[in-house]
Amino acid sequence: MSAIIDDKVVAGAKSANIVKEDPIVALTEKVNALYFFRDHYFENHSIEEAIKKNGDVEKEMKDTLSKLDECKGYEIDGSRAKYYYLKGKALNVTERFIPQAEELLTKAVKLEPNLVEAWNELGECYWKNDDIQQAKNCFVGALRHGRNKVSLRNLSMVLRQEPVPNTEQRIQNIQKGVEYAKEAVSLDTSDGISWAILGNAYLSSFFTIAQNPATLRLCMSAYTQAEKDIVAGSNPDLFHNKAVALKYQEEYSLALKSFERAILLDPVWETPHNKRDELLQYLKDVQNSVNNNGRVKPKRLYQMIRALDVKHLGPYKGGSFTSGQKTVKLDLVLLKDLVLGLNPEKVIFGKVVCWIQDTDCVPFAFCLVDEEKMCIAVTVYNLAKGRGVTVGDSVAIPEPCVIHHKFSYLNNDFDFKSIRVETPVILVVNGRKLGREQQASAKLHTFKKTD
């Protein structure tokens, strides 16, 4: 790192000696070096030292602030706003909200309203303090002075968190958020932070607007691009949010590993720990339920299976159903006859023996047993709050999509099959097809630091 200010010059400041080097240039280098230290920490430290990162960044911040304070007595003609901006930015390097940073950055934008970087830093201050509206005002204001990736991607985040009066406004915000994030990426395709926020924007779009598999693929592609950048790839938020997407895809093994990566990068952050443990417990519960027929006693199970009646197939009883304007033929088959992946022109039928609690309430999961006492897990997405099936219900599922989950994690061996149901309206429960009122979009919870 280049010398910041000549020691003799600093020592002679009270004597009004003239600084040989422009303090603003030197201080800018110092603040940039602080952020480089934070963002490239794992280039010079092992992952095992992650626990020390926040403390080490705090030390560098204090050192940087001391250099800024050494210049406090100088009259920096025409650069007062930039001085306030640099000090505010230095204070803003940590994850926590620091009121002094907000005060300094507010002064900076008042003195120099065209200072886009100060507007962005001030917006981040408000963001950390959960003042969404003020954060939005800052990023919108910054964009009036020029399109830049930081304002665009931050505005994308803010719009997804902004309180809105209705679903229509939320959808509009999500759509705008995708466009802002795409523009941010287009301004610098090598910036992994922008790619990560684009991934979050696509994920929000998938949950809120339309659950199109192509949108989820765009999301995962953006996360993959983000990981190529050393700065974004060192960010635990990326791996937490990627794990959320992977869990929804039912890529459970990869989701657990992604949560694990977030834990390694920030050992004191509790959220990925909790989410990893919750997913692990959920998977254990599913496997135990499948292996033990929902823990239903043999006599009760026998009675439930005897009660299966083909009349409860409802609209699927006739061997066909209408999908749009197309008539699809259906053959009733046993669970053992299903193949992995989609089973076109097939319908399965069984009794609900249990449901499995998931802390996120997405998906709604239950176990189904057919007439041969074979048990399989069923995961239903887009189910409205308070809706579902109960133990003893007869359920028919047309053209089931079967997934085989077989992997090991932390001395746990998983090996079970499940049927994924994207929308509840295709289910027939006790002879009746579920209505549209049973369907609702899932609610997405990504971590708020980057989304």
Quick summary:
By secondary structure, this protein is of the alpha+beta class. It has 16 helices and twelve strands.
Structural summary, described in words:
The protein is of the alpha+beta class and about 450 residues long. It folds into 2 domains: about 25-285, Serine Threonine Protein Phosphatase 5, Tetratricopeptide repeat; about 295-440, Beta Barrel (OB fold (Dihydrolipoamide Acetyltransferase, E2P)). It is about 50% helix and about 15% strand. The chain contains 16 helices and 12 strands. The strands form 2 sheets. Strands 3, 4, 5, 6, 7, 8, 9, 10, 11 and 12 form a 10-stranded mixed beta sheet that branches. Strand 9 (about 400-410) and strand 10 (about 410-420) form a beta hairpin.
Order of helices and strands: HHHHHHHHHHHHHHHHEEEEEEEEEEEE
The CATH homologous superfamily of the largest domain corresponds to: Tetratricopeptide repeat domain
- Largest sheet, strands/sense/barrel: 10 strands, mixed
* Approximate shape: elongated
Helix content: 40-55%
What would the keywords be for this entry?
451 residues, alpha+beta, Serine Threonine Protein Phosphatase 5, Tetratricopeptide repeat, OB fold (Dihydrolipoamide Acetyltransferase, E2P), 2 domains, ten-stranded mixed sheet, two-stranded antiparallel ribbon, 16 helices, 12 strands, 49% helix, TPR-like_helical_dom_sf, TTC5_OB_sf, TTC5_OB
